[in-house]
Specification:
The structure holds two protein chains of two kinds.
Chain A (H helix, E strand, L loop, with lengths): L1 H71 L2 H8 L2 H18 L5 E7 L5 E4 L13 H7 L6 E4 L6 E11 L2 E10 L1 H5 L12 E6 L4 E4 L16 H10 L11 H8 L6 E5 L9 E8 L4 E8 L1 H51 L14 H43 L3 E6 L4 E4 L1 H7 L3 H4 L16 H13 L4 E8 L5 E12 L5 E10 L1 H36 L8 H32 L7 E4 H18 L3 E5 L6 E4 L1 H17 L6 E8 L8 E7 L20 H6 L7 H12 L2 E7 L3 E8 L15
Helix pairs in contact in A: 1-8, 2-3, 8-9, 13-14, 14-18, 15-16, 16-18
Chain B lengths: L2 E6 L3 H13 L2 E6 L2 H9 L6 E4 L9 H10 L8 E5 L4 H9 L4 E4 L5 H12 L1
Parallel strand pairs in B: 1-2, 1-3, 3-4, 4-5
Classes of the chains: A alpha+beta, B alpha/beta.
Chain lengths: 764, 124
């Protein structure tokens, strides 16, 4: 349930937020678009309005000029100029009437007639008469037959008037000037636009950029922007407006426009550098051929507020839509998630091992298909589980058997990881060592903390190298110490367990407590040693006394006596040999003799034997031939056992070969034959072994009939000893023999020489 | 000049044979049948030229114990010793060799004349 809630939140919140986010971006773009559109439209509107206003003002100016021209061509006016002062007095009243007729629609301040000297000869305004106009621009322009209305502040009433001066002509020659002073209100009434937004205004400026009219009055008689007139021009302007011209405003763009005498309608985006007034639109155009300029100034804030209003409405709509969408999504999700809940519940039940869950989904969509898949999976799982359980049971039973076997065997078994840290120890471990399973697990095998560490460090290094480096089992006898401090002797086999990459993963150590056996062995060895000593003592007595008698120490002996004493001496010698051999046989029979191979030069062993036999060989006048390779052969053998083998074979050959015979010893090295790498042969030209007795030749105490009949010395134990040694050491012995021709014995050893064998006894 | 041999041998019959043979070969013989007896003779201060030593002796101590006694005393340190015994263990032979003996004889494999010849060669 919690997960489904999360899923709903996970889906609905992002959708809601995205709608709001993208909606707000759209709102911003929309508002910007509306704002720009409003401004554009306003600019277009302004342009139209400006053109209309300029036309209206322009045509009004033209109308005034036209009226002026009409009056100037009136006969009364012309004749007024031509009349004498006296006549003029009479016609003043008539002219005034006529003029008033012309100006019924205009708010005229005054009309004056000015002679060519600039003197006013007539005026409707009695207060202004007798004024001289000769220095005025409008007078000069009119005298030059130019139309040039001018704005001026009257010095009398300090008010602004528009001056319209036209020439009065008689037969195309100028005889005087007609001047009308127009009240500004009449002209300015065209400039008052209705529905102007707050902060917006209309300005009417002259050709020098001086504002004559502003809808908020405060900027009247100010230059619009930074003015670029000369000082004298500025002075003229000051005079024109009766010294009322103020500092300039900040509308440099407008001033530049006026200065450039451009006639187009121009619209500027303006933002003031001096004050905080927000940005504005400025629109400007000229009136009456660049005599005056109409300016609209519109504050952009209005449009910003308009855009914000639009944005707010849009944003409101979007948020409402988003909320509605969220509600719809939640409702839809709730409906869609229902089958998901059913599936979840089913999956959970299947997960907990219930394989009889039905899924009831009626919608014909992906959920139904998912449900079908889950039902199929459920069935498959049921099968797999059934099989698996059976298999696990079987394997567990198998494992249990092995575990039981390993646990309860009387052999002490320890398994370690590849660092020698114990991970398993069977019951026998605590029985033999006294350490509990708990004390053993996790500790290093062979350490002093446990039963190990009693051997020299070299021993453990050799052990470790054999198992981990050479990956071979180590076999040996180890002195250990029980938990209670009692030492014991163990016969150990330590083998590496290798993985498929031939890397050591575990090490299995099997140990057997052989303390008792070792003690028994020791006792036996002691017994044998003592027995051999005791047996030899009387034999030595016989030996030495016989020797002394034979030496004549007890007086002279007869030849018969010598002959008999010789027999006693030989018999005694055989007895000694027999005792020596029997002692070796007793060790061999116990099977616990030691084989300790080390690299041995075979030549040296042979030479030692020959030296010992030299005397006998010489006595029998036999010939000894030695066939050896030039290189000294170094073989891994137990030198003592090797000596026994060669010594027995050579002494047999000497014994069983008549005087003058030949004995040949050969050594061969077959590099390619791993099993029969070293071959040692001892041949003689002696009595041979009778065919029917050849099969018994290696039996204990067996002696062939032909040599027994000859009464040659021998114990019948030599070949038995050789065979027993070679059987244990991994070598072989065979022979070929023909009676009265000779015998060849062949000993073969494998490439690795003799196999190592631990034991408590040595053979001498 | 007559050389004196100290014979340490517990077996009476063998001891006789040894003595007879040595005397016949012009040696003076002093006899002991145990380690204690042998040290006693040494301590009398008589001049001794060589020792004929058996391994097993009467009493608990062996020929090896006697060797140890000899080798730790400055006076007897270089006294030639001939071990003549029927004990043939490798361990024993090497133990004697380590302590510096003239020769090791196995009684049953050696004749008296061989041994006496060897002694003569050594100390003459």
């Amino acid at each position: 349930m919690i997960k489904i809630k999360k899923f709903r939140t996970r889906l609905s919140i992002p959708i809601f937020l995205s709608i709001v986010f993208f909606g707000l971006i759209a709102t911003y773009i929309g508002a910007l678009y509306v704002y720009n559109n409003l401004i554009d439209n306003q600019k277009k509107d302004l342009e139209v309005h400006l053109k209309i206003t300029a036309r209206q003002v322009g045509s009004t100016l033209q109308r005034i000029v036209n009226i002026n021209n009409a009056i100037s061509s009136e006969g009364d006016v012309i004749s007024y100029f031509q009349s004498s002062h006296f006549v003029r007095q009479n016609i003043n009243k008539d002219i005034t009437e006529k003029i008033n007729n012309y100006f019924t629609n205009f708010d005229i301040k005054s009309l004056s007639l000015i002679d060519l000297n600039g003197d006013e000869i007539f005026s409707t305004d009695s207060q202004t008469s007798n004024q001289n106009h000769s220095d005025k621009n409008y007078f000069k322009s009119a005298l030059a037959d130019k139309y040039c209305p001018e704005s001026l502040i009257d010095q009398d009433d300090n008010k602004l008037y528009y001056y319209f001066a036209v020439p009065v002509k008689e037969n195309s020659s100028i005889i005087g000037i007609l001047l009308t002073k127009i009240n500004p209100e009449y002209l300015h009434s065209y400039l008052k636009l209705e529905n102007l937004e707050a902060g917006s205004r209309t300005i009417f400026a002259d050709k020098n950029g001086v504002a004559l009219y502003s809808s908020d009055d405060k900027d009247n008689y100010s230059y619009l922007g930074d003015v670029k007139l000369t000082e004298s021009e500025k002075l003229l302007v000051d005079n024109q407006y009766n010294q009322q011209v103020k500092q300039h405003l900040t509308y440099d763009v407008l001033q530049d426009y006026i200065q450039s005498r451009s006639k187009d309608v121009k619209i500027f985006d303006y933002s003031s550098k001096l004050d905080d007034r927000s940005s504005e639109i400025l629109a400007i155009t000229n009136v009456g051929d660049c005599l005056f300029y109409v300016i609209y100034e519109i504050n952009k804030d209005t449009f910003v507020f308009g855009a914000i209003r639009v944005a707010l409405v849009l944003a409101g709509c979007i948020v409402t839509c988003a909320v509605l969408a969220l509600v719809i999504i939640l409702v839809l999700l709730d409906r869609s998630v229902k089958p998901l809940k059913t599936l979840e519940e089913a999956a959970r039940k299947i997960g907990s091992g219930n394989f009889n869950v039905g899924i009831d989904i009626k919608t014909d969509d992906e959920f139904k298909r998912l449900a079908e898949v889950i039902v199929k999976m459920e069935a498959d799982l049921k099968d797999i589980y059934a099989n698996l359980e059976q298999k696990v049971k079987e394997k567990t039973a198998d494992l249990a058997k092995f575990q039981m076997a390993v646990s309860s065997t009387s052999e002490h078994i320890v398994i370690t990881d590849n660092n020698g840290v114990i991970i398993f120890a069977n019951k026998a471990v605590s029985k033999t060592t006294g350490f509990s399973n708990k004390e053993v697990i996790g500790k290093k095998a062979g350490s002093k903390d446990l039963w190990g560490g009693q051997m020299p460090p070299d021993f453990y290094k050799k052990l470790w190298d054999t198992v981990c480096k050479h990956k071979k089992p180590f076999v040996g006898v180890i002195n250990n110490k029980k938990k209670n401090g009692v030492p014991y002797v163990a016969a150990a086999i330590i083998s590496p367990i290798l993985d498929e990459n031939n890397e050591v993963i575990y090490i299995v150590a099997t140990e057997r407590d052989i303390t008792k056996e070792a003690e028994v062995d020791k006792a036996k060895t002691e017994f044998v040693s003592l027995a051999s000593h005791q047996l030899r003592t009387p034999l030595s007595a016989i030996n030495w006394y016989t020797e002394m008698i034979l030496n004549g120490d007890a007086g002279k002996i007869t030849s018969d006596q010598r002959k008999y004493l010789d027999e006693i001496y030989k018999g005694n010698k055989r007895m000694v040999d027999l005792v020596n051999s029997l002692l070796n046989v007793s060790r061999l029979d116990l099977g616990t003799f030691e084989i300790d191979p080390k690299p041995t030069v075979i030549h040296e062993v042979c030479a030692d034997v020959f030296e010992e036999m030299e005397h006998t060989i010489e006595e029998k006048k036999q010939k000894l031939i030695i066939n050896c390779p030039g290189d000294a052969l170094k073989i891994s053998v137990d030198p003592k056992l090797m000596r026994i083998i060669i010594q027995n074979l050579v002494s047999n050959a000497v014994k069983y070969t008549p005087e003058g015979g030949t004995i040949t010893v050969g050594l061969k090295y077959n590099k390619k034959d791993e099993k029969n790498t070293y071959v040692i042969t001892v041949s003689d030209s002696g009595y041979g072994i009778p065919k029917n007795q050849q099969s018994n030749i290696f039996e204990k105490l067996f002696r062939a009939d032909n040599v027994r009949a000859m009464d040659a010395e021998g114990t019948g134990l030599g070949l038995y000893i050789i065979k027993a040694i070679l059987d244990e050491a991994g070598g072989k012995i065979s022979f070929k023999s023909t009676e009265n021709k000779g015998t060849t014995f062949t000993v073969v050893l494998p490439k690795d020489g003799m196999k190592q064998k631990t034991g408590t006894k040595k053979i001498s | 000049m007559t050389k004196t041999i100290l014979v340490v041998e517990d077996e009476k019959s063998l001891s006789f044979a040894i003595e007879d043979s040595l005397v016949r070969n012009n040696f003076k013989v002093l006899k002991a049948n145990s380690e204690e007896g042998a040290t006693k003779i040494l301590n009398t201060g008589q001049k001794i030229d060589a020792v004929w030593l058996d391994h097993y002796l009467l009493g608990k101590k062996t020929g090896l114990d006697f060797m140890r006694f000899l080798r730790q005393d400055e006076k007897w340190k270089n006294l030639p010793v001939f071990v003549v015994t029927n004990s043939v263990g490798d361990d024993k032979i090497s133990s004697y060799n380590v302590m510096g003996i003239e020769k090791y004889f196995v009684k049953s494999d050696s004749t008296l004349s061989d041994i006496i010849d060897s002694i003569k060669d050594s100390i003459s």
